[in-house]
Design a protein that fits this description.
Length: 476
């Protein structure tokens, strides 16, 4: 079984219901336990208070008048009877010891409460449980008699049990109510999420305009919908960009291929001199080289979009550019252009060597494309602090202001002079991708008296989140 199949599925509805019921149960149990404990303690205090009260009344009854020993038992029986009538719900009995303690104690009240194991007269003035559901307390009267009172706890704690049953019933009813409310709430949330999922599944393709319904959605789900809309919108934009890229490639490669085919067909219509064939092949070779460069740029551009960056290497821009720009120097010389390279300070850095050099070569090649014969192209590279700064300037027609916001997008090109074909619109996009991948910047600058001018800032060590400050003074 794969790891994906082992993932335990769960539902938001089930988790919310479990959480609500568990929380409600814990709270109900805690409150019920506290309530039962409070009522039990109250019943316990009530029993002790009743024992105190009855014994205090007996003391008061015999504190002023002390009957003779012969009449005391009869008088005590009358008092016990009166006390019993005043508490009809209580079940208690009395035990009376004479002062000498030698005689057998007299018993009054509900004698069935006085079991054989009923306590003796001592200890005095202390309440304690007998272990069989009774409470006992004894005290000494003013005339030397000792009286003990035993009370049945059952009627009092029966109320505690009734209270516990009532609490249990209310707890069950409350849990049922919470479950019903939670079920209704989770069903509502689930239906809203299911509605969003259904709308997303109904999207036919990335090209479709995405507009999810937000009617009656809570803010939390609305945020999810907004984030999903943003993701779908970015997906649609990426799909449109991919279609544009494919269409641009097809359009840009079709024309030169048709030209090559047409020239070859014309050349085969009749016999020609070797010089004619050589001129044709030379022309086609230049065209094929441009096609090769375009394909290489396209591959590099797709790679920079799919990968965070290539292998990091430490290299010197001066050494690499002097070697890599050999072909551009030869081309500039053939077209009557003055291409100069100037290096200042330490130009070593660590980064994606091929991406950076390909981007810089395209900037120089782009300057050669747009600079008329007799013009000048300057590349200045200076190391300063943690950055390497470069400017590439030419004396061409410059960049129209309306194109500047889009100049680093693929297949964006200016209008070439009549009869002149200018690149495929990939070079500046490659240069921009290489600079930003290093954590640097590339921008168009306005330099008086020059055509197009680009300024590049490359950190010596990749800083994806950084925006190095532009320091044009370092290049002057």
């Amino acid at each position: 079984m794969s790891k994906a199949n082992k993932i335990k599925r769960w539902t938001l509805r089930g988790r919310i219901l479990q959480f609500l019921c568990a929380t409600a149960l814990i709270i109900a149990l805690a409150l019920s336990a506290a309530g039962v404990r409070f009522v039990t303690q109250a019943a316990d205090r009530e029993i002790d208070a009743l024992l105190h009260e009855e014994l205090d009344e007996v003391k008061a009854a015999f504190s002023l008048v002390t009957p003779t020993p012969e009449a005391f038992a009869e008088a005590f029986s009358e008092v016990a009877e009166e006390l019993h009538k005043s508490h009809p719900g209580a079940s208690f009995a009395w035990r009376l010891w004479p002062p000498d303690g030698c005689q057998r104690p007299r018993e009054f009240g509900k004698l069935e409460e006085l079991k054989p194991e009923a306590p003796a007269c001592e200890p005095l003035d202390q309440s304690f449980k007998t272990g069989d559901g009774h409470r006992w307390r004894s005290t000494e009267l003013a005339n030397g008699y000792t009286v003990g009172l035993i009370l049945d706890e059952e009627p009092h704690f029966a109320l505690v049990r009734e209270f516990g049953i009532v609490v249990l019933v209310f707890m069950l009813v409350g849990l049922a109510g919470i479950f019903i409310v939670g079920l209704s709430l989770t069903n509502r949330v689930s239906s809203l999420l299911s509605k969003v999922a259904q709308e997303v599944r109904g999207i036919s393709g990335p090209a479709e305009e995405v507009q999810l319904s937000k009617t009656k959605l809570p803010d939390e789900i609305r945020e999810v919908v907004d984030a999903l809309e943003g993701l779908l919108q970015r997906t649609r934009e990426e799909a449109n960009a991919s279609r544009l890229l494919i269409a641009g490639v097809a359009h840009e490669l079709r024309s030169p291929l048709q030209n090559l085919i047409g020239e070859a067909e014309v050349a085969l219509l009749s016999e020609r001199t070797p010089q004619d064939y050589q001129a044709l092949l030379t022309s086609q070779l230049d065209e094929l080289r441009e096609l090769g460069d375009a394909i290489q740029n396209l591959v590099a551009l797709c790679s920079t979009r799919q990968e965070a960056g290539g292998a990091l290497e430490r290299f010197c821009l001066q050494d690499e550019l002097e070697f890599r720009l050999t072909r551009e120097k030869q081309r500039a010389e053939r077209e009557g252009l003055d291409l100069t390279l100037e290096f200042r300070g330490d130009t070593c850095l660590q980064g994606d060597r091929e991406a950076i050099l390909t981007g810089l070569r395209n900037l120089v090649s782009n300057a050669i494309d747009w600079t008329p014969r007799g013009g000048k192209i300057d590349l200045v590279c200076a190391g300063q602090g943690e950055d390497v700064l470069m400017t590439i300037c030419d004396t061409g027609p410059g960049i129209p202001k309306k194109l500047i916001p889009h100049i680093f997008e693929p297949f964006v090109r200016g209008e070439a002079a009549s009869g002149r074909r200018i690149g495929y619109g990939l070079g500046l996009a490659l240069a921009h991708s290489a600079a930003t991948a290093q954590g640097g910047t590339i921008e168009v600058v306005d330099v008086e008296g020059l055509g197009a001018s680009f300024r590049i800032v490359l950190p010596r060590v990749p800083r994806p989140a950084a925006r190095p400050a532009a320091r044009l003074a370092a290049l002057n």
